[in-house]
Design brief:
By secondary structure, the protein is mainly α. It has one helix at 2-60. 97% of the residues lie in helices and 0% in strands. The radius of gyration is 26 Å and the shape is rod-shaped.
Length: 61
């Protein structure tokens, strides 16, 4: 009976470990998506200011 209990315990650990890995991967994906959105918004907001500054430098030459 001990061998059966050991086998069941190993299978249970394997199944629960896989679920945690998938959850961690999903969390990293959400964090990456959030960082991407913040970067895009920041570049969009600063893009007009940078464009104006570079246009002024270009006109000066």
């Amino acid at each position: 009976m001990s061998k059966l209990q050991n086998w069941a315990a190993r299978k249970y650990i394997q199944l629960t470990h896989r679920d945690e890995e998938g959850q961690g991967l999903a969390e990293y994906g959400l964090i990456l998506a959030l960082i991407s959105v913040v970067c895009i918004l920041a570049l969009t907001a600063l893009g007009t200011n940078i464009n104006g500054t570079l246009g002024a430098v270009n006109a000066a030459f």
